[in-house]
Amino acid sequence: MGAAVLYSKGVSHSRPNTEDISLCYANRSAALFHLDQYEACLEDIVRAGMHGYPERLQPKMMLRKAECLVNLGRLQEARQTVIHLESSLNAKPTLVSSSHQILQRNLHHLKVKIREKENLPETFPKALTRAFEDMALGEENKQISGASLSVSLHTDPLKGRHLVAAKDILPGELLVKEDAFVSVLNPGETPPLHYGLENKWDTRVTNGDLYCHRCLKHTLATVPCGGCSYARYCSQECMQKAWECYHSTECPLGGLLLTLGVFCHVALRITLLARFEDVDRVVRMLCEETGNKDICLPEKKNPVKTLHCTNRGESENSIIGETPIPGCNVHGKYESNYNAVFSLLPHTEKHSPEHKFICAISVSALCKQLRAASLQARTMHLKSSKLEAVTPGLCADLTIWGVAILRHMLQLQCNAQAITSIRHTGV
Ligand SMILES: [Zn+2]
Ligand SMILES: [Zn+2]
Question: How far is the CA of 410 from the centre of ligand 2 (A)?
Fold first, then answer.
């Protein structure tokens, strides 16, 4: 496991399409093989090939591939790989005799294994469906998406939006099932660095090495961001999605986000995600919040759309006789979106002046860096797709978005949830 993590670090710090990165992937595939993670091993073998794995080492990796396929019960493919390997060995006997002998011996063992398996067809158990995903809410609440009928939604000037039990709740009853609007991997504490001859490599392992930075899945076979050596993902798809949604902006910020802490990071990511909803609407909500009409965008052509962003903002569509619940839609229904997050109370008056000061300083440092990064991207004539991801909405008016980030930082203090896991450090 240690080797896998270290090869991941190697992957993160290597340039794409070099022998270095291909060797790191190939060696990590060997580590994953020893950990019985055959699917992940196969993926790394493909990645090593994509980045130009040297021809002279190919047979070793093909043998590993065949072994993986055998262990996964994919015997047909294993056979094909063996045939391919044998023909390439016969065509180019480039290896030194001793390693050639070892390879031939392993190949022989493998062929015996395939034959045995073919005669004794095994049934592979289907992956166990995770209990929680299958847990049902029972009849779903019409007022709140993803909640059971045992709760109802209320609002209160002091507490803000909250759930109240509508009936007696049984132990273990599932009440709410909702994906997080936003999540950030908390890097956690870095174990102290031991100095010494045997420790010339930084072998410290943190959460950042073990979990996908987007979906938080535990993985040893991470795929790194091409632009930094920090962000890494469980798959190419997660990397792509993260890049499109927020990482293109976060990537050039470097170590600043780590320094400012996880709340600041979450707050930034919330505002980055808000760009994918109605940006004009969001900006108007923020203007109302700051009371500064001067920095508002010009009125939209369609002024009918009214928002329930505050208790004051009743619209003609609201349910007559009821206080509209902040963050719900015009029909009074709660939906998981930015409007719902935005209307959580920041409890500004309850935070200590010191805390508010630190939050404000952090956000202004962040905005300064965002502005610098966007200017740099513009002057460097980066690929237009990258530039687009940085500019719209966010850098156009950083004053507005700075207000949003600060509001979220204050909200997070009592609205964020942490998921923790216990890891044996071996110390
Ligand atoms: Zn992922
Ligand atoms: Zn990056």
Answer: 26
Sign of CA dihedral 72, 10, 230, 223: negative
Taking a C-beta distance cutoff of 8 angstroms, is the pair 64, 45 a contact?
Answer: yes
Whole-number Å distance, alpha carbon 335 to ligand 1 midpoint, is: 24
Dist. CA 372 → ligand 2 center (Å)? 17
Ligand 2: distance of its center to the CA of 142 in Å? 40
Determine the distance from the C-alpha atom of residue 298 to the mean position of all C-alpha atoms in its chain, rounded to a whole number: 35
| pLDDT higher than 70, residue 58 | yes
Q: What is the pLDDT of residue 89?
A: 82
Distance separating alpha carbons of residues 185 and 321, to the nearest angstrom: 43
Residue 377 · residue 395 · CB < 8 Å: no
How many whole angstroms separate alpha carbon 110 and alpha carbon 68?
11
Q: How far is the CA of 367 from the centre of ligand 1 (A)?
A: 28
Instruction: Pick the closest to residue 181 from 342, 381, 345, 2 (CA basis).
Output: 342
Of 61, 109, 62, 105, the C-alpha closest to 82 is 62
Ligand nearest to the CA of 233: 1
Output the DSSP codes for 195-248: PSGGG-S-----HHHHB-TTT--B-SS-EE-SS-SS-EESSHHHHHHHIIIIIH
- The total of other beta-carbon atoms located within 10 Å of residue 312's CB is 8
- pLDDT tier for residue 318 given thresholds of 50, 70 and 90: very low
* Structure confidence at residue 313 as a pLDDT band (50, 70, 90): very low
Which of 20, 68, 75 lies closest to 40, judged by CA?
68
All structural domains of the chain: 2-119 (1.25.40.10)
- Is it the case that residue 370 has pLDDT exceeding 60? yes
Phi, psi at 152, each rounded to 5°: -135, 160
384-416 burial code (b ≥16 CB/10 A, e <16) = eebbebbeebbbeebebbbbbbbbbbbbbeeeb
Q: What is the mean pLDDT of residues 360-373?
A: 91
Which ligand is nearest to the Cα of residue 183, counting in written order? 1
Identify residue 374 by its one-letter amino acid code: S
Q: CB atoms < 10 A from the CB of 153, how many?
A: 19
Contact assessment for residue 45 and residue 58, using Cβ atoms and an 8 Å cutoff: no
Residue 229 alpha carbon to ligand 2 centre in Å: 7
Nearest ligand, measured from the Cα of 237: 1
Q: How far is the CA of 345 from the centre of ligand 2 (A)?
A: 32
